[in-house]
């Protein structure tokens, strides 16, 4: 089979390699479309060259002996474990059964390829890090939420999931992608968009003004899907005492958050982590954690797609399949993409 290996640069080489075999708890998927994420060019700069693709949409080819949910021929999407072998930049990829989910007939492989990593990152940030109410415990209390970077895939999924939890007003910070963000928010519930291109001071003042107009004295939750260019610094100026901010990248080492702000990092890798027996949670007898959260929410994504309240991200199919991967990752590196995910039709690879 064909497999693309990404190295620093980014530089991409395509190799002929054997089709992998799933272990007892994994599925082998014939990849129809692979999605991409900014980490796909970043991670190979920190580690050795590897197949860095993690968004899989395709057809189950083989399942491990312990797998009961899937069978050969099933249409699925899956989140490949970051850093593991056999990623999605290939004709066949491996995923754990618990990070694989069925696709409704009406959901295309193209749309599905935009979902796994970014949507799960959004879910973990909202519900595990920020502690907001899940969709099955939707709130009826006004709960303002700042989403910084609303046109990004993670930010857009955060908006969609927040709306499923009836979290409003949403104060969304965006730039070029504002027309797209406008399709996601609900102005009738006080949602609004703030343009970060007006400068940091304007962002801070407009967030405060938005809260004032809504008759809300404090905001306590913020999802920073950018985590660069002063985003978390701006947010920290408006969060109330005991406020929480979660980020997708670490803050600058020299930056100190205000004492009244609780900050955290949302890493999607948590859904591949068991609770260690010698950890505080393990010693307390806790058995379930982010791995089980991932299992549940991937299945909720499938249900949301079927029912129509959840959807994928806008996408652009890159010509040439994996042959177009290097140029696409270079565009991501250069920030040339807004409100769109690059996806790759694997059979177009020559």
Automatic annotation (TrEMBL):
Keyword Oxidoreductase attached: yes
Domain of life: Eukaryota
InterPro entries: ADH-like_N, ER, GroES-like_sf, NAD(P)-bd_dom_sf, Trans-enoyl_RdTase-like
Keywords: Oxidoreductase
Record's keyword annotation contains Plastid: no
Molecular function terms from GO: oxidoreductase activity, acting on NAD(P)H
One Pfam family cited in the UniProt record for this chain: ADH_N
Domain Enoyl reductase (ER): 9-286
PANTHER family: HYPOTHETICAL OXIDOREDUCTASE (EUROFUNG), OXIDOREDUCTASE, PUTATIVE (AFU_ORTHOLOGUE AFUA_8G01420)-RELATED
Family: Belongs to the zinc-containing alcohol dehydrogenase family.
Protein name: Enoyl reductase (ER) domain-containing protein
